[in-house]
């Protein structure tokens, strides 16, 4: 497993035979990553088969499909899945559930890192894009335990004709292209093209919880892109920019060939402004998280603050209602963030009122970005201090008002820890987290059904009450 | 073509030495929260005790005695098999490493 800050993220594509679909997935994924200028030391992709296949070449039809999609099938030698491959893999992707089950049966410890291609598609649509890549398997796995995933994108390798086979390989190519877009937006150095941009480029400077981020907008209409970025990130745009710690080059280009060229030059390149805004939210968030690794406790949490600066953080996995809660509470209290709560070791909060991401295209997992200003959310006060940390448990259909109660420290920390970025790089690791939890009076769990009902309990939470609300 | 057989269950001789591994840990009320790599594990009291006993490395036989002293003999099952069932997930997750014994 990768634990170093920028160790390669290792992806293992697993098929049944190791000579049919797995090599196609391996080579097309590598192609898509190379086309986005993602270096080998950022993401590495290999493949294997659950059946014994060591030393075999890939099937001719697989090699033809790779070539047809612009990849290179040369030099492929199949490998049987083994302990060393599994242990090195950060994420294991299988064609379908029976292959997944075979992997997990042989290597039970890989369960939380092993996903079908359908699970990858559906779970990524809901979660994980706002976290460093190394944390994605854990985030996806925890979300998987809470939702039923439709196996509609699983790849069947039986009973097909030429047309079915062509469609099968096209689906692999589509999945690789889609996943490469997700990963390209968040790998370390995403969008870090050399130089300052073209003569037409326009910059937007953002403050992301104290990290100066410069977005260099380029492409067909840089001004229009910059305007859209400025509107969506309105609350974080700096009029007095500092020297940027992070620079991201982003282009919107209509022609596919132009996007390929821009990506090779290190730009994030998209076909539409909406697509760019969708991925930029992840890019800015994750690049800022990367920049503050080891310096701040960064939780996947929403937060709001009272006018006197006392704030409550609501910790919950992605896709479980933080954004909705932040949107509702932000009409009554200062909006601090809907996703990344950055706190120093003295409970000082670095507000991050980023655009709120609302799913508009479940098919593609696209989320529309809404600025805090356009949603009329109240601004957070200048000085914010964390006074409460709450674990959210939303139970749709639950009857009665929200209820909160204290929970044992270790049990709470076990849940909170899974929602902390770069925990291993904090100087005191678990102890820093425990110190923070104890400094805010321990952890409480808030059970609720409807975000609107939580408005009434925020004052009690801020005041540090240990329990309250309805049954 | 058949898949390779599943991994065999953990089986360690009495003189194999097991050693706990973690990057950080917290203890409260008998439980233990362990950070290993980028993963966090909440261990039950018996797994936590095994980790505590094995920080400096301990033979399996001694670990067995130590756990029996704290928790008593298991009400059912072979005591060595019960111990292996406790250690297996710890070894599988890399929280414990073992030598093969003499």
Share in β-strands of chain B: 15-25%
Tell me the number of helical segments of chain A per DSSP (H or I, 4 or more residues long): 15
User: Which architecture of the largest domain in chain A does the CATH hierarchy give at level 2?
Assistant: 3-Layer(aba) Sandwich
Return Rg of chain B in Å.
Answer: 14 Å
| Poorly predicted regions of chain B | none
- Counting helices, strands and paired strands, the structural category of chain B is alpha+beta
Question: In words, what does this structure look like?
Answer:
The complex is a heterodimer of chains A (471) and B (102). With 471 residues, chain A is an alpha/beta fold. Chain A folds into three domains: 176 residues, Rossmann fold (3-Layer(aba) Sandwich); 90 residues, no CATH class; 173 residues, Rossmann fold, CATH 3.40.50. Helices cover 33% and strands 24% of the residues of chain A. Chain A is built from 15 helices and 20 strands. In chain A, strands 9-10-16-13-12 form a five-stranded mixed β-barrel. In chain A, α1 packs parallel to α2, α1 runs parallel beside α7 and α12 packs across α13. The radius of gyration of chain A is 23 Å and the shape is globular. In chain A, 52% of the residues are buried. Chain B is an alpha+beta fold. Chain B is 34% helix and 25% strand. Chain B has three helices and six strands; from the N terminus they run ββββαβααβ. In chain B, a hairpin with a 2-residue loop joins β2 and β3. In chain B, α1 packs across α2. The model of chain B has no long low-confidence stretch (mean pLDDT 89). At the A-B interface, α4, α12 and α13 of A face β2, β3 and β4 of B.
